Amino acid sequence: MDNSEHMFTLLYLHGLNSSPNSKKARLTKDWFAQRVPAVDFLCPAIPPFAHAAMDMLENEIALIEGRTVHLVGSSMGGFFATCLIEKYDLRGVLINPAVDPANGMEYLLGKHKNFQGTDFWTLEPRHVEEYRDNAHEKIKNKSNYIVLLQTGDEVLSYVGGKVSPEMEIPKILWLKRNLKQQYDKIAYFFDLADFLVYKSTGKNIR
């Protein structure tokens, strides 16, 4: 029996300066390989520049024929996933997504080494504007999104490049502004440590 109609392609979008060899990408790939091997897992190496990244990702989608495409985007990959979901009416999961990366991205201007330390790239002011050009102020179909928030993830450009518990605040604000229906159903927001305490003890404080 041909089950191809039940298969889909999962396009995983990694974060800025990360790679298909990142920990989350490898864990996600291994999970699907072990539990749902029929899913076609793709994790392309995404350029750090918004226009080049979108051109490449749109080409990836164009090359996928006969399968439904779902997205998982982590950090800056969440930003690109949003761009693709809005353009192609896809569905996806955003993991700690970068929401408005051009806002405050100036601290990243300059030369950088990629995740594997093999290539260098330089972020210029025109590249920041590329991210601004691709941003979406409003979400057309909020039911296309599942958003997962947790502290301690990759640095988000719009919070100044520092990892801190306050990172979850702009993400919660994004959820409230763009996925209000889901936001209104949430009783608590936890970081990972508080969630584990809650699941272990039933108490929402520690």
Q: Which keywords apply here?
A:
single chain, globular, 7 strands, about 210 residues, five-stranded parallel beta sheet, disordered N terminus
Structure commentary:
Strands 2-1-3-4-7 form a 5-stranded parallel sheet, sandwiched between helices. A two-stranded antiparallel ribbon has the order 5-6. It has helices at 23-35, 50-63, 76-88, 125-134, 168-178, 180-184, 192-201; strands at 8-13, 40-42, 68-74, 91-95, 110-113, 120-123, 145-148. It is built from 7 helices and 7 strands; from the N terminus they run E-H-E-H-E-H-E-E-E-H-E-H-H-H. Strand 3 (68-74), helix 3 and strand 4 (91-95) form a beta-alpha-beta unit. The chain is 37% helix and 16% strand. It is α/β, with parallel strands linked by helices and 206 residues long. The protein is globular, with a radius of gyration of 18 Å.
Give me the secondary-structure category.
Answer: alpha/beta
- Rg, please? 18 Å
The main sheet orders its strands as 2-1-3-4-7
Distance between the termini: 53 Å
Total number of beta strands: 7
Largest sheet: 5 strands, parallel
Short description, anyone?
With 206 residues, the protein is an alpha/beta fold.
